[in-house]
RNA sequence: GCCGCUGUGGUGAAAUUGGUAUACACGCAAGACUUAAAAUCUUGUGGUCUCAACAACCGUGUGGGUUCGAUUCCCGCCAGCGGCACCA
């Protein structure tokens, strides 16, 4: 009890001191010191406050920032709020409060909790995505994208959540259900703003080369973009002046193509269906319409289809092959038509088997020319070509792919094509609590086919140009377009944004013709504000630029970006895309925003399950900190396991960390009281312990090895207390410094007690550097092995490390326990690894 | 199914470039202090054999391989976790 109160006293005292000295953690825009930018993903300030996941991730960032600061870097370590979004809107509706007010309450709560946990943010750089001064620039980015022809309006079937009454991006649909509420998603046609992120697909892959992201993250990005090279092959329809184009990644299988399938939504479908087949086709299409998206796209379902009655010609061998309709073909991928090669695609195999279509195998495994494929599980990926005329005998993927592509393109049967899994990004949301999209639509100008692209920009894509008729961004000097405060936030039943019910907002004047015009009433998705927030931290108060070039050049790129796995694909991709675009229009000085991405682990509940209110296993960091002390919680979080790992909360382990901190404090206090009486002289044994510790801690901190850093500190304290040596003041100070990033309160208190530093905080001190001469010990113990098995040890002093190999081996031979093994045996080989190992290889 | 990751004590986990496997902590056991409890401190703690110690043997999911020597590198398999899935 007494102990706990002491912790609290210290915490209150130093929190007040830090509050009064904000310059401690301020990033300096003018300093000559080398910069270092540590970024934690900014949180969504929910009503339930800071959870353990936040505390874990933020402590990890804070330790790193404190470490780098002490190493003498000019550190930028900022924090802000990603505050737009549905939960706040829903909560506001429920509580009959304004979202603006809810956001203010929540961010106030988060900020004070963060201060309590001693996160060393530069609070003068706080940003909030819902602040008009901030979203002015989110809107500005949208306008720039529009001007560059990277945003267009499109009437398109979107994923519609009937419960949230909102359109969802593909990314927000999980298992066919709404990511937020779990309701099954349906399709709905709505005119949406769409961002052409696909234009940047290759750049987003290539740019990864310039980053130090861990492989896992790079791979996730590459997979999501899903670049696929292949051909679009044209199949001419018999007796009609038409063609069906199919995209394929595997053009080398063209000689095995024995049919073509189109999706039920295929545009030209009517002209392909013969009179005899008409009835059957109509029936099939009716049935497939009844299936929902989930049924149609579950990989295991039966492949069904119907013959159209038409035939096309396989260009490479003039063979007549049938055209089918099948709902396993997707209308919105590739060309909506697929060539069927039964033996080399598992779906095609199932389809061919069901309808008795011809199968021609065109590849065999490298060593077995008699191999026949008779099941969809045996599809060959890379074999040797057969049944393919002049290409027979070639290796399929390496040689035949290239040769067949060249040959077909030369003959005008096909064109090269790259497809992506990545789709354009639906940017419209029909909700209140988001950035208003700063666009105006003028019907009059639309009738006159006015497009701002006509006069200002050269946009090649005809569809994009047409979609822009009548649409204009609001003039830049009118930004920000402020979200009006309204009484009702509920979306309308027809799915329109609540803003559409406010005539004062909707009705405006056309900037072009001066006539009556209407504003866009959709708002932007959550991602819009979080794509670029790291830029704003560099220059928060700038109201003429997104941030000044000068300051961006000083701080970019972000040196370490710490966040969760769940943002490794979407957020990171969107954010990199926006940054690359801003680089192209010369608004930012670096091609990539983040140098290194660190993805932190997950803290599970004490029951080893994900924390959730319904399971009742939620740990609230604030509550634990009140009980045991902030430093204990911080240090425990960092000690639990590797920073990237998944681990369960355990009160027992936390108690171990608490014991350690108590022992540490007690030890230092005892030493300090001794210091007054004696001037302890430096002692070599002590110096070795301290310097090895400095070296190890520094190295581990650098690579986020927090758990081993703390283990080393614990081990050193054990050694120190056992040795019962008196420590000189300078070494006591080193110990306090090494602990400072983890335990800011206790170390600050001890630092003030150790004395003679004026008013300087421990967090402003320079990080100790290990002295080379103390890093090697007096004596080294070398294991001696026989046939690789350690049988004995040999103690040698440093001096002897320099003596002849022969002498070491001779000494090793003379050891009792070694003699036992080697006497009377023939030694085939003697191996000595300097300072590490001796191994005798004997016969038998 | 595909992609990625991970398998080490009773538990969370360490192990540099291939060089003494299990650091650090938890838990457990015994002991000290205490009227008692808590707290604190000390000692022990992979397995087999042994009264015990020494020694020996076995041990990093599993089966092989490379090597003087493999938790680490290579090949095959098994189990678990995460992500994506009729993407042609």
Automatic annotation (TrEMBL):
Q: Does the keyword Ligase apply?
A: yes
Q: Where is the Leucyl-tRNA synthetase editing domain?
A: 223-408
Q: Which residues form the Methionyl/Leucyl tRNA synthetase domain?
A: 38-187
Domain called Aminoacyl-tRNA synthetase class Ia: residue spans: 410-648
Say if the entry is tagged with keyword Nucleotidyltransferase: no
Cellular component (GO) terms are: cytosol
Catalysed conversion reaction: tRNA(Leu) + L-leucine + ATP = L-leucyl-tRNA(Leu) + AMP + diphosphate
Q: Give the UniProt record's GO annotations in the biological process aspect.
A: leucyl-tRNA aminoacylation
Enzyme class label: ligase
The record's subcellular locations are:
Cytoplasm
Cite the Methionyl/Valyl/Leucyl/Isoleucyl-tRNA synthetase anticodon-binding domain residue spans from the record: 690-798
**One GO MF term attached to the UniProt entry:** aminoacyl-tRNA deacylase activity
Supply the NCBIfam families for this chain. Answer: leuS_bact
The protein, known as: Leucine--tRNA ligase
Q: Which organism is it from?
A: Candidatus Shapirobacteria bacterium CG2_30_35_20
Q: Give the gene that encodes this protein.
A: leuS
């Amino acid at each position: 009890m007494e102990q706990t109160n002491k912790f609290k006293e210290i915490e209150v005292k130093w929190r007040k001191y830090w509050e009064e000295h904000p310059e401690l953690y301020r990033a300096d825009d003018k300093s000559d010191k080398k910069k270092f930018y540590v970024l934690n993903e900014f949180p969504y300030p929910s009503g339930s406050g800071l959870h353990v996941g936040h505390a874990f991730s933020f402590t990890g960032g804070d330790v790193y920032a404190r470490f780098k600061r002490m190493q003498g870097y000019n550190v930028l370590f900022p924090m802000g709020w990603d505050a737009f979004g549905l939960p706040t809107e829903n909560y506001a509706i429920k509580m009959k409060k304004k979202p603006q007010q809810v956001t203010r309450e929540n961010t106030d709560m988060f900020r004070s909790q963060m201060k309590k946990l001693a996160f060393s943010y530069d609070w003068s750089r706080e940003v909030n995505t819902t602040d008009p001064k901030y979203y002015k620039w989110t809107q500005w980015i949208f306008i720039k994208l529009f001007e560059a022809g990277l945003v267009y309006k499109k009437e398109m079937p979107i994923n519609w959540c009937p419960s949230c009454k909102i359109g969802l991006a593909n990314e927000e649909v999980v298992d066919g259900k709404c990511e937020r509420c779990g309701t099954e998603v349906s399709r709905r046609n709505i005119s949406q703003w769409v961002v052409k992120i696909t234009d940047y697909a290759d750049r987003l892959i290539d740019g990864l080369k310039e980053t130090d992201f861990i492989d896992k993250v790079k791979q996730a990005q590459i997979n999501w973009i899903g670049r696929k090279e292949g051909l679009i092959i044209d199949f001419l329809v018999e007796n009609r002046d038409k063609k069906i184009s199919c995209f394929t990644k595997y053009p080398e299988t063209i000689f095995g193509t024995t049919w073509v399938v189109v999706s039920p939504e295929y545009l030209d479908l009517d002209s392909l269906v013969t009179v005899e087949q008409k009835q059957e086709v109509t029936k099939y299409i009716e049935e497939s319409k009844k299936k929902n998206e989930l049924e149609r796209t579950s990989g295991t379902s039966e492949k069904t289809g119907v013959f159209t009655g038409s035939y096309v010609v396989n260009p490479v061998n003039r063979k007549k092959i049938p055209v089918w309709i099948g709902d396993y073909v997707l209308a919105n991928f590739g060309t909506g038509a697929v060539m069927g090669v039964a033996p080399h695609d598992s779906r095609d195999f199932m389809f061919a088997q069901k309808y008795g279509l011809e199968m021609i195998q065109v590849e065999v495994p490298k060593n077995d020319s008699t191999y026949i494929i008779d099941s969809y599980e045996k599809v060959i990926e890379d074999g040797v070509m057969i049944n393919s005329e002049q290409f027979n005998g070639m290796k399929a993927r390496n040689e035949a792919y290239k040769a067949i592509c060249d040959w077909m393109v030369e003959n005008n049967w096909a064109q090269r094509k790259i497809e992506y899994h990545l789709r354009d990004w639906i940017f419209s949301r029909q909700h209140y609590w988001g950035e208003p999209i700063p666009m105006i639509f003028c019907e009059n100008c639309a009738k006159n086919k006015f497009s701002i692209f006509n006069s200002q920009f050269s946009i090649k894509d005809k569809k994009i140009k047409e979609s822009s008729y009548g649409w204009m961004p609001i003039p830049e000097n009118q930004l920000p377009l402020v979200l009006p405060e309204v009484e009702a936030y509920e979306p309308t039943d027809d799915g329109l944004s609540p803003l559409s019910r406010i005539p004062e907002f909707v009705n405006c004047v056309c900037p072009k013709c001066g006539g009556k015009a209407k504003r866009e009433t959709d708002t932007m998705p959550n991602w819009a504000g979080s794509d670029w927030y790291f830029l704003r931290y560099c220059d928060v108060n700038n109201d003429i630029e997104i941030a000044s070039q000068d300051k961006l050049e000083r701080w970019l790129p972000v040196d370490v970006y710490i966040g969760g796995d769940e943002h490794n694909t979407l957020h990171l991709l969107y954010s990199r895309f926006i940054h690359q675009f801003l680089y192209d229009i010369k608004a930012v000085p670096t091609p990539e925003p983040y140098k290194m991405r660190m993805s932190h682990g997950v803290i599970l509940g004490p029951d080893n399950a994900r924390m959730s209110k319904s399971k009742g296993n939620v740990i609230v960091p604030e509550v634990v900190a009140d009980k045991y002390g902030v430093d204990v919680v911080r240090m425990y979080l960092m000690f639990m396991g590797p920073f990237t790992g998944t681990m369960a909360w355990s009160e027992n382990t936390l108690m171990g960390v608490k014991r350690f901190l108590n022992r540490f404090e007690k030890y230092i206090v005892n030493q300090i009281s001794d210091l007054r009486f004696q001037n302890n002289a430096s002692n070599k044994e002590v110096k070795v312990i301290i310097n090895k510790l400095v070296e190890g801690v520094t190295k581990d901190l650098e690579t986020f090895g927090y758990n081993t850093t703390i283990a080393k500190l614990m081990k050193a304290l054990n050694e120190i207390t056992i040795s019962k040596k008196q420590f000189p003041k300078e070494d006591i100070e080193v110990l306090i410094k090494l602990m400072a990033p983890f335990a800011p309160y206790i170390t600050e208190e001890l630092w003030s007690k150790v004395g003679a530093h004026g008013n300087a905080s421990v967090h402003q001190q320079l990080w100790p550097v290990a002295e080379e001469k103390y890093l090697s010990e007096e004596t080294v113990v070398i294991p001696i092995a026989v046939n690789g098995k350690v049988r004995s040890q040999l103690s040698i002093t440093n001096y002897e490390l320099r003596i002849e190999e022969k002498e070491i081996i001779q000494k090793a031979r003379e050891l009792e326990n070694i003699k036992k093994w080697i006497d009377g045996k023939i030694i085939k080989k003697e191996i000595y690894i300097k300072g590490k190992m001796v191994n005798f290889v004997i016969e038998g």
